[in-house]
Amino acid sequence: MFNDYAAGVSLLYITTIEIVVLAYGFGVERLEKLMTIQTGETFPTYSKIMVKYVSPVIMIGMTCSSIYNEFFDNKYDYPKTFSWIGRFLFFVQIICVPIGFLIKINTPNMDDIIMEDYGGKFVNGQFVDMDDSEPALGYDDTEASQDE
């Protein structure tokens, strides 16, 4: 019973939310530009289409189907008490995602992290290097050269 409720639909739901946030919240294009800056490689067009359009549709369909099967086409013969305990475990894991979106935690903005790590920012979807007056990663090499 624990395998059915703790690792089934709830993990599928969390993975669905992750791929939707990655594809539309952060953006595949931004992720590709960061990867290009870091490694010099780009995503294949096939991968971008799969992550942005095909995977979310399939995963949302699978999640809805699993939830429907849980409540209307339950194939397990657990006693009612155990079924509701399992459903409670299922919803406890799922409810953490919307609560996480609602709670504002004092974390740095993604643009601030990109500015610190790469010394630039995204303007209208394009990565722009900032002037060299502020070194990237907070390291000032002028102090090191003065010490020598």
Brief rundown of the structure:
This protein folds into two domains: 2-104, no CATH class; 106-148, no CATH class.
Furnish the topology, listing elements before pairings.
Layout: H1 2-6, H2 9-39, H3 45-72, H4 80-102, H5 110-118, E1 120-123, E2 126-129, H6 141-147
Antiparallel strand pairs: 1-2
Number of discrete helical segments: 6
According to DSSP, the number of beta strands is 2
Q: Whole-number radius of gyration? A: 22 Å
- The helix content is 55-70%
Overall description:
The protein is 70% helix and 5% strand. It is mainly alpha-helical. It has two domains: 2-104, no CATH class; 106-148, no CATH class. A two-stranded antiparallel sheet has the order 1-2. The longest helix is centred in the first third of the chain and has 31 residues, at 9-39. The protein starts with a helix and ends with a helix.
Keywords:
single chain, 148 residues, mainly alpha, two-stranded antiparallel ribbon, 6 helices, 2 strands, elongated, disordered C terminus
